[in-house]
Amino acid sequence: MTLALQIAGLRKVYDSGFVALQDLSLSVPRGEVFALLGPNGAGKSTLINIACGIVRASGGTVQVEGFDTVREARQARARIGLVPQELPSDAFTTVQAGVAYSRGLFGHAPNPARIEAVLRSLSLWDQRRSPMKALSGGMKRRVLIAKALSHEPSLLFLDEPTAGVDVSLRRDMWATIRQLREQGVTIILTTHYLEEAQALADRIGVLRRGELVLVRPTAEVMRELGGKRLTLQLQQPLVELPEGLADLALQRSADAMQLSCDCTPREGWPGIGPLLQRLAAYGIAVQDLQTAQRSLEDIVIDLVEETGA
């Protein structure tokens, strides 16, 4: 397995004494979309800035496709594209000129065909002569991605790429991310939109106070931690739950009009039909029922709370 990014024992302690990252290790194979999740202040941007050579680490190492980002900074940085959270400030530069300039910063010869291909892939070609100040916030974010791709990086960091973008444009950007993945680009994505991580990422990592508390395939997390919840609406309030139903781990609502439990298929789970029969045997009448899958957001919130954030 070829690694696009390898982080070992990474630490960052600021002069104030604040510990932003502590003993963090992570390996990301080439061609993967990896979502880095966590609350504000968890260390997501610090990790990205260290990997991109913007911030100096207090300890540990970062390698990009085998090149150390400190000892072999030029080789490592040439392979990285970064889409930061901040919108561009070059208000009077045209879209095409700004993207071409970004390519030149990495020592690449002008390549109008490459710039055109990038702009077309991001639906920016029609705006190529527009000054940045004339673009919407969503289009400016597309320009940031175009700049990051101008020098043909193999590892792309997307730091909150769809923040402030409307739903329609966000979906278009999802399609762009999938297209980049198909082209072999490795993508590290930070986002507060959990739906985004669930839709795009092969794996997720959850950061809590500078520590990785979970790194798992997204599908595996949803399968093992994203269980189904069954809610039963009762015809009459249930004053007390019969002892004979204790094995079902049913929970009563505050108004005693609902019962709920985990109904993920597993050993010991009787199934909804047998459950209703057991309730009926105790004279508990059910008026309605519904099931709901736990979202990735629910899982991440639980993980962060369990670790004391």
Could you list some keywords that capture this structure?
309 residues, Rossmann fold, Alpha-Beta Plaits, 32% helix, elongated, ABC_transporter-like_CS, ATP-binding, P-loop_NTPase, nucleotide-binding, ABC_transporter_ATP-binding
Protein described:
With 309 residues, the chain is α/β, with parallel strands linked by helices. The chain folds into two domains: 3-223, P-loop containing nucleotide triphosphate hydrolases (Rossmann fold, 3-Layer(aba) Sandwich), CATH 3.40.50; 227-293, Alpha-Beta Plaits. Helix content is 32%, strand content 27%. The protein has ten helices and 14 strands. The chain has helices at residues 44-51, 73-78, 95-105, 112-121, 137-149, 167-182, 194-200, 218-225, 272-281, 296-306; strands at residues 3-13, 19-29, 33-37, 59-64, 67-68, 80-83, 155-159, 186-190, 203-208, 211-217, 228-234, 251-252, 258-262, 286-293. Strands 6-7-8-3-9-10 form a six-stranded mixed beta sheet, with helices on both faces. A four-stranded antiparallel beta sheet has the order 2-1-4-5. α3 packs parallel to α5 (137-149).
- What's the end-to-end separation, in Å? 34 Å
- What's the Cα radius of gyration? 24 Å
At the third CATH level, what is the topology name of the largest domain?
Answer: Rossmann fold
Strand element count: 14
Residue runs with pLDDT of under 50 for 5 or more positions:
none
- Shape designation: elongated
Which structural class do you get from the secondary structure elements? Answer: alpha/beta
In helices, the fraction of residues equals: 25-40%
- How many individual helices? 10
CATH superfamily of the largest domain, please? P-loop containing nucleotide triphosphate hydrolases
Q: What is the domain tally?
A: 2
What topology, given as strand order, has the largest sheet? 6-7-8-3-9-10
Per CATH, the class of the largest domain reads: Alpha Beta
CATH architecture of the largest domain: 3-Layer(aba) Sandwich
The overall pLDDT average reads 87
Report the biggest beta sheet as strand number plus sense, adding barrel if it closes.
Answer: 6 strands, mixed
The helix-strand sequence is: EEEHEEHEHHHEHEHEEHEEEHEH
